[in-house]
Amino acid sequence: MGGTTAALSILAPSKHPLSSTPTTDELLLHDPPNPSTALLSSSDHSPSPPRDSRTTILFISLLLITSIAVAASAAFAFLFFSSSSASSRSSQIPISHESIARPLTKLRNPVVLLVSSDGFRFGYQFKTPTPNIGRLIANGTEAEAGLIPVFPTLTFPNHYSIVTGLYPAHHGIINNLFFDPGTGDFFTMQSHEPKWWLGEPLWETVVNNGRKAATYFWPGSEVKKGSWDCPDNYCLHYNGSVRFEDRVDAVLGYFDLPSDEIPAFMTLYFEDPDHQGHKVGPDDPEITAAVANIDRMIGRLIEGLEKRGVFEDVSIIMVGDHGMVGTCDKKLIFLEDLAQWIEIPKTWVHSYSPLLAIRPPPGVSPSDVVAKMNEGLKSGKVDNGNNLRVFLKEDLPGRLHYAASDRIPPIIGLIEEGFKVEQKNAKRKECGGAHGYDNAVFSMRSIFIGHGPQFARGRKVPSFENVQIYNLVTSILKINGAANNGTLSFPNSVLLASP
Question: Which of 22, 132, 214, 493 has the most CB within a 10 Å radius?
Answer without folding.
Answer: 214
